[in-house]
Amino acid sequence: MTKTSLSAKDILMRYTPVALALSLAVAISSSVLHSAPTDALNSRAAALLAQGRGELTAGRTEAAVGAFEAALTVQPGNAQILIELAAATRRMGLQGKAIHYYRQALDTDPRNLAAIAGEGAALAEKGATEKANRNLARLKTLCGGDCAETRQLAAVIARGPAPRVVSAAAITPKPVVSEN
């Protein structure tokens, strides 16, 4: 007479690997499905981004930077906001800060053409043409020589470094008092 009932040890040994595999699959799929994409803007960040673009269009660069920074506070690490913020700081002549923002955007999306081109342009304006040419080569690999980002970066590199703006107070000689 054979018994078909299984002992607890047999059940544990037969079904544990299957249960572990299923629970791992469920955990991975649920974390992927429930994580929000980093590029999706929430409504407050989108409103601040639009406000910043409006300020930039009106020529109020500092106000635009403030709006972009507020949007970044609302939604940290968003590549779209970082690129807009980098472009605004570049307009202010703060190429080092712009490069920092472009690199943060590239950390979240290494193939972002706007971030690669913007970083290259900021590098070229700063005088780092060798590094800017590396960005240009990377763009040509990703999108070819005919995409808009490649053409824009090539034009910025061809222009050369941005001239440094010096205030009149910095070059005005200080009066020297001497005795006759």
Compose a concise summary of this entry.
71% of the residues lie in helices and 0% in strands. The protein has 180 residues and is mainly α.
Features:
single chain; 180 residues
Describe this structure in words.
This protein has 180 residues and is mainly α. It is 71% helix and 0% strand. The protein has nine helices and no strands. The protein is elongated, with a radius of gyration of 27 Å. Residues 31-38 have low confidence and may be disordered.
What's the end-to-end separation, in Å?
130 Å
Q: Helical content, roughly? A: over 70%
Number of DSSP-assigned strands: 0
Order of helices and strands: HHHHHHHHH
**What value does the Rg take, in angstroms?**
27 Å
The tally of helices reads: 9
**Class computed from helices, strands and strand pairing:** mainly alpha
Shape: elongated
The whole-number mean of residue pLDDT values reads 83
Report the β-strand fraction as a percent range. Answer: under 5%
Q: Which runs of at least 5 residues are low in confidence (pLDDT < 50)?
A: 31-38
Largest β-sheet summary: none
Secondary-structure map:
Elements: H1 8-34, H2 43-57, H3 61-74, H4 79-91, H5 95-108, H6 113-126, H7 129-143, H8 148-159, H9 168-171
Helix pairs in contact: 2-3, 3-4, 4-5, 4-6, 5-6, 6-7, 6-8, 7-8
